[in-house]
Structure formats: structure tokens, C-alpha cells
Amino acid sequence: MGTNERVSTGLKGFDAAIDMLRLGDNVVWQVDTISDYMHLVTPFVRQAREDGRNLIYIRFGPHDALLDDMDGIRVYYVDAAQGFESFATKIHNIVKDEGRKAFYVFDCLTDLLKFWHSDLMIGNFFRVTCPFLYDLDTVAYFALKRNSHTYDTIARIRETTQVLLDLYRVKENYYIHPLKVWERYAPTMFFPHLIDGQEAVCITSSADAAALFSGYTWNEERLDYWAVTLQNARNALSGPPALQEEKKKLLLSLLIGEDSKMYDLCYQYFSLTSLLRIAAKEIGTGFIGGKSVGMLLARKILKVEDPQRFMHLMEPHDSYYIGSDIFYTYIVQNNCWDLRMRQKTQEGYFCCAGELKEKLLNGKFPRHIQEQFMHMLEYFGQSPIIVRSSSLLEDNFGNAFAGKYESVFCVNQGTPDERYEAFENAVRKVYASTMNEDALSYRINRGLVDLDEQMAILIQRVSGDYYGDNFFPHIAGVGNSSNLYVWNKDIDMSAGMLRLVFGLGTRAVDRISGDYPRIVCLDNPLQAPLVAYGDQQKFSQHRVDLLDLRQNILTDKAADDILPGGIRTDFRLFADPDTLTMNRLRDLGYRDRKTPYILSFQNLFKKTGFAETMRDMLALLSEKYDYPVDIEFTANFTEDGSYLVNLLQCRPLQTKGLGQPVSLPSLDDTKSFLFYSKGNFMGGNVRLPIDYVVFVDAKAYLKLPEQEKYSVARQIGSINSALKGRNAMLIGPGRWGTTTPSLGVPVHFTEICNMAAICEVAYQEEGLMPELSYGSHFFQDLVESDIFYTALFYGDKDVIFNPALITDHENVLADIIPSTPILNDVIHVIETKGMELYSDIITQTVLCK
User: Fold this and answer.
1) pLDDT, average across residues 545-559
2) Which architecture characterizes domain 6-214 according to CATH?
3) How far apart are CA 672 and CA 652, in angstroms?
4) Which pLDDT score, from 0 to 100, does residue 717 have?
5) SS3 622
6) How many whole angstroms separate alpha carbon 664 and alpha carbon 671?
7) For residues 94 and 90, what is the distance between their CA atoms, to the nearest angstrom?
8) Count of CB atoms situated within 10 Å of the CB of 307
9) 704 and 814 in contact (C-beta within 8 Å)?
10) What average pLDDT does the structure give for the chain?
């Protein structure tokens, strides 16, 4: 890595002036034209040929080739339009494959501006490529067009390169002015040198030097190319329509990307003015990511298509966006690029992820980005904000990435320095979540490993208000425009559904131990999923997620402690008195206890038009997307019951539809059925052959120590891998994927992702109850992976379950994976002969026999 072996530039006089080049040198020429650069490349290549060097030409610019004679030169064409990471990775792999002591000529780096529109990314590219070339004892020529880049970019390149040279052409004469020649020095080295054939005449006279440069044009102000692009777009607003159209397409490609269904929708609804408003709220450069695009597009659709219906009901937003280029800059700035390259290999994909995650959690941001962060925080003041992942692939058609990346609340209390530190840590946490095991596995399962997954960030003001020391919205949740997973044949599936909670929406997207969101069918919102009499309180929400301003944390508190307090609207919109519990307390003599409440939301649907608003909103968005949609929202109410809805997120809802009606077997012999149930399934009409059944015995499972319950989850993961490609059905007690082993088996979704169907069985006496997870992140994973789901409420009158049809057969677990003997009584696997799973939406029947 960097030896003292001398290398010629092909100009003997200039070799003497700079004491020649060295193996390991990256040589950067600042030029006025490509032809001037060619004037220096030609002798370098000629000399390298004579010396028998391995010559490589990296071709990416739109200009003519730098060399007329390609004999003996290996040419690589690299498409810079594919983006920074793809470009840098391909060149990294070229350099790695070509090995030590190769000689390189690169096209002019300034041409990368045409593809990336960012000086920042050119500096990043050079900073990650130059050291790798140096380590392999190569010599590489690069060029930059003078006055085309910011001083900061030039400074980063000067800091990284070994040799930086200015080339001037004055009156048909060429002059080379060395600016940096690393680890070499001579008294006249850094004077201008006139190139006369093979000679280099040093210009030492002050008069001659002044005469040489005084007539030269200097550009004092150097704006980042991104800023220049935006300014040109602003100027186009007063220009002809054709110019505005051109700039609109350019900004769409820079902020959103190209060649996608989302691009087409954004093109339809965003004007040049609206795109400039978005760009004005961006920190750094690059894409704003899928989550930001989905939120902005949904709001724009509602505004354009039916402003009278929706705009007076919509809470405004004033979000900021951290551009995807900052993610790369952060990686480069903190010397993580080599580690990222290793992590992107097949062998390093998982094993390098932990180390990279740790480095991302502890990095530093460039000063100019820190200043923009501070400006943004000053804008929000002490309003709580949420820092949300918004990766390029997130919330797009085909890939939701639901729950795979972090979102971090910043309560935003304390001194400016404390608030700033908390914000930076939140950004770091989002960046580091790109290395979460679930996210990496999701990318593999969805065939996305080879696609760039840049992480942009959406920063939103948290919706809600201060209620004493607490901050929260009145209600929040998720909504689906298509309710394919229904529990009653009378439900209109096209009306959509909500998964609704009081307070922050975190309980709506996650499956929380002991809490149940309100599932709302928007055609009949007063109709709730069937719950046995007396269990309404048990299967409802009990705790409220909120921001505690005094403690400066996200936390949860009992709903009964929040509801009767002043929330500046009638809390009875959301809660009804729990008369059963109240009567029971009175019977026990507790007459002074305050009235307990159930979060039923009945009056919300009886006394306001909220359900109708959400139904119409989902229907319009789905119509314009030409696809079912999934939204996240909040709503806040006034004393008179009026409300504002804050649309936080919108994405295509992955769903396979109803399917064709299925002919069900007769119910003559119920003992031949593995199970039968009315309702409580998700997945449409199916007739699915089952090759294997994987069964977790509830009683044996509950007897295990807690640590062994986690071992069961890991064993399920191994079975899941072993049965990939087979139609396997997984049956177990309580909730699959819970974080609480006493409520079910704590698998990660990646440990059940290959199953054709999963079944959650209720054992009420043991406290093992499924949760119909419509709308949750778990729901998204099931639908995207095309996994059929059913819940069996064992003991209900419309439910049959015969586990003996599994346990009476030979356990083939040991034939599939090496198993722990203690778990053989817990996990029972059978290979079936002709078993099939049936479901029918119209009759709401699901059965397996």
C-alpha cells in the first residue's frame, strides 16, 4: 500500500519537477475542458504501455472517449445513472478483481453531476474509492472541471488524494501547477510549470506568474450543483410551460426516483411549485424515500380530487426530510464504507451486520449537516417530533417493509443541547436499523438484496396536544381500504376497516401484551368482532401510549388514569362506563371506587361522522392508486365534537384478493376434521393442500421454563427453513410472534415466513388468546408472504379442534432437524397424506381435514 517505486507521468521534465509519481498515487487534475485532460492522459497511457502495465479505463461520462487507441487497455462501462451505491460498488469490485499495481484512467468526475446532481456524492465517491486504490498500489488519473464544484468538495478531495494538480491552457501553452504532492518536496515543486514537449519549465518569477494568472477567469461563488438545480427550477416558474415540464420531471427523478408506479402518480398530482416546496424542507440532498412520498401523495390526492370534502377536516403538516445522500455521507464520514462493502457480500451479509450497526449507532455527522439539524430543531421548538425511516423501497408497490425499520419519538424537552443530542441519536438509531436482522431477512425473502436501499428520514411534528404532563392525540390507528379478512358474512369488504386506539398509534401497529385495539368495519362501525358476554373489558385497550413531558420519554399509562382528566373534548366519545366491573366492585363493597371505563369508541361512531370520513378517504385513495391502500392516521377532537384527521402515511396494501369460491367438504363426520371454525381467518377463499403440520402442544409448552420457550421459537425457525418450498401449516397456542412467552411462542416473523398457513389456538383457562391482527405490522407480513391465517377459539360452539389427529401420528421432527429431546414432547411434526385447508368468505367458514 503506497510504495516508493517511481512511476512516470510520461512527461520527463514534469517527472523531475515532482520527483515522479509513486505506486499508490491518486492523481487529480483540475482542468477547463476534456481535451485538456486528454492532453495529460495520452503521455501517461503511452508510458504505461511501454512499461507493460495493466491498463484500465473506467468509462461513465457522456463525453468522447479519452483515448483514441484502446489497444492493450481494458475498458469498463459503468452506469452512473444507477446511483451512487451501485456505481461505487461496481468500481470497488472492478478494482478488487484487477488486483495490485493496475493503472487506471477515469472519465471526468464532474460528469457525475449530470447523474447525481450533488457535489456531496462526488466527494463521497472519491473518499471511498481513493483509499482502496492506494491500498492496492495502483496509479489512477482523475479529472475535475475547474469552478464546477464547491470549495468543500475540493477540500475533501484534496484531503484524500495523494496528488492534486491544476492544468491551465494559456495562449495554446499548457501549464501545470502542483497543489499537493504527498510526501515529496522540492523548493520549486509548487510553482507553475510550462510544459514544452517533454520539458517542464518552472515559472519562478513573480512577474511571470502574475502575468500568467492575472488574466484568468475565477469564479468566486461556487454553489452545490443541487442548489443550482433547484434555483434553475425556481427560475422556470416564470418561463414557458415546456421548460416547467422539463424541470418538474427532473425534480421528480431527484426527489422520488424514476420508472415506478409511484413516480407516475406523483407526476399526475405534483406541480413544479409543490416539488419546490418539498425540496425547501429537505436537509441535504437525494431522495426523500417511500414513507415521505406516500404521505405527501395521499394528502395531495385528497386536496386535488375532493377539497370540499376533506380539506377542512385535515390537520396541516410541516414535515422535514433528511435526504438519502446524508445516509451515504454518514457512512463515508465515519469510515464504514469498507465494512458496508463486506456486509453486502453473501458471506458477510449477516455476520458483518452487527459490527456495522454498532458503528452506525456511534458515528458523527458533518458540520454542515449538524447546522441544518439545529435549524430544523429551532423551527419545531419544543414540540414533540418523530424521526421515521423512509427508505427508498419502503411503502412502495410490492414492498411495505412494515415495522422493519425504526421510528423514534423525540419528546423534545430540555436544553437546546439536550434536545439536539436526542435528535441525533434518533437519526443514528434509524440508520442502524438498516442492519436489523428482520430487515435483512425481509430483503432476502423479497429478492431485494441487490437493490440499493438508501435510508432517507421523515421528521414529523407529533400530532396531539398537552394534557398536563402528557402529550398524545385523542385517537390513532391504521386503516385498510379493503377488508378482505372479515368475521361476518354481512360485512361489506369494500368499505374498509380501521384498527383504532386511544392515544399514540404504537398500539395499533404492534401486538401489545394484554391489550386489544378496536377493530372497526367501516360499513357498520358499531359492529365489533364477536366477544363472549362479560369479556368486553378483557378484549379492549387498557393502557395508553403517550409522551411524558416531565420525564421526557415515551411511556404508557392506565387508560382510567387518563380519560376522566381534562382532554379538552368529551372523553365519552371514546369510552363507556364498565358497568359489569362497576357492579362487581359494588357487590364486593368497594362503593367509593371511581368508575372504570371501557374504550369501546361507540359514541365516536354514533355522534360524529368520523367513520364515514375515513371510509370515504380510504375509498378515494384506493381509487386513485388503483390498488388497495393502507394508511396510518391520528385524529384530535374539540369540545363540540368536531375533529381534524392527520394523515401520517399511505402505502399500497399487499393483498391477493378473494379468490374463486371454494366447494367445502360436508360436515357429516366432524371427528375427521383437524379443525372447523366460523370466521376469524385471513386470506380469502382458498383450497390449500397441506404437506406438513407443525404443532406446539399448549400444556407441554406452558410447563417449560421461560428460556426453554425461547428455544421452542428457535426450533420453529429451523423447521421453517427446512420446510421451505413445502406447504406446511403451523399450529400453536396463543399468539405467534409475541414478545411475551406466556402469551404464545416468541418467534420472529422470519422464523415462520415459509409457512403456507398459521393457526393461533385459544386456551382461555391458560390465558393464551390469539389476537386478530388486522392492520398490524404482523398482518402486513402475513399478507405480503401470502400466508393464510386463522384463529381457533377452542371451546366456542362454532369451533371444532381435534389435536389428536396430529399427536396420534408419528412425530417426524427428528427427521427434519436435529432437535433437543426435551422439546420433542412440545413440538410435534407430522407428514400428512391428502390433508387440505378450505376457507370460504361468503359463509365465513374455515376448515382443515
Assistant:
1) 95
2) 3-Layer(aba) Sandwich (3.40)
3) 40
4) 93
5) helix
6) 16
7) 6
8) 11
9) no
10) 88
